[in-house]
């Protein structure tokens, strides 16, 4: 299975600007990308990075500087999956679950209504990632065929905001969690959920 | 399968005090409980409410006013599942997935490191819901037997905070989403994820 992984090469993950400086955001986003590519390969998929600017990566890569929706639609062919690069909780098993879910279009919702991964077996399907894409994709896909939905916390957990780092520290097993730990991040208990702390001497 | 559903009868969901007044929080938490009980029944489970104070509910209920951990441990027997009452995204399929996951102890993590559901087939297992219970449960369970983990966005999504209401409006199919809609809540698009809005004339 061909798996397109969109990646913002320049100034990635701006909503993590509080805890991470620009160079750290670049490093952390590359670590997350590495986790995603490895999970795809372990699941038997063939990853292709779809980058906004050239990058040095050990995977076939295409550069397309158009907005995400246009770039993905240009890369979309039948039997193509699209998996976001900021999903460091993914495992080979999660990706296999995506590949094996029946449906002309298979969608994996992200927290907050995005579409973190999809698989199109239908040539007419087009993506539209602007605001609340899961509900839009489900509606448009259901007009042209059957729709499968993958229920996965690992697929739903894209890392955009500081609070999301907690999930990496709890469930991560690859490069991204290792990067966070080396940078001094650790879990702290709050009254309700876990939160993150960063040691002053981290990296 | 016996399924214990802990429920805070008095002053529930205090972290929703911003958007909901006390009576609304009572109604909404009862709607979520109803969704959970129905999903358990549809999956062939036998739900038992474990309530902090008497409540009028169409399901066998026990009252235990001790803290959650003590009350659940008193109710725990082998072949018992514990499913939280604030999981309105649950479906019969999700609960079946919990029942069918192998392991002496099966855990379903909640966002932020809690344990939203578990299934114990091991008489020695005890719960401890204080701060970050998923990692503690996984560690203690692995000392006494095999551990299964359920990867489910529906099980991971407990509704505690205003931002969580978005997930109910996107994925909910039962009483809780109906209650929110009747109370005037709807989805609005923000720059990144979806958010909720409430109409001034809602309920």
UniProtKB/TrEMBL annotation, chains A, B:
InterPro entries assigned to the protein according to its UniProt record, in alphabetical order: CofC, Nucleotide-diphossugar_trans
SUPFAM superfamilies: Nucleotide-diphospho-sugar transferases
Pathway field: Cofactor biosynthesis; coenzyme F420 biosynthesis
EC numbers for this chain: 2.7.7.68
Keyword Transferase: yes
EC category name: transferase
UniProt GO molecular function: GTP binding; phospholactate guanylyltransferase activity
GO biological process: F420-0 metabolic process
Classification via Pfam families: CofC (PF01983)
Reaction catalysed by this enzyme: (2S)-2-phospholactate + GTP + H(+) = (2S)-lactyl-2-diphospho-5'-guanosine + diphosphate
Alphabetical keyword list: GTP-binding, Nucleotide-binding, Nucleotidyltransferase, Transferase
Family indicated by similarity: Belongs to the CofC family.
Subunit (UniProt): Homodimer.
Cited PANTHER family: 2-PHOSPHO-L-LACTATE GUANYLYLTRANSFERASE
Role summary: Guanylyltransferase that catalyzes the activation of (2S)-2-phospholactate (2-PL) as (2S)-lactyl-2-diphospho-5'-guanosine, via the condensation of 2-PL with GTP. It is involved in the biosynthesis of coenzyme F420, a hydride carrier cofactor.
Protein's name in the database: 2-phospho-L-lactate guanylyltransferase
Species this protein is from: Halalkalicoccus jeotgali (strain DSM 18796 / CECT 7217 / JCM 14584 / KCTC 4019 / B3)
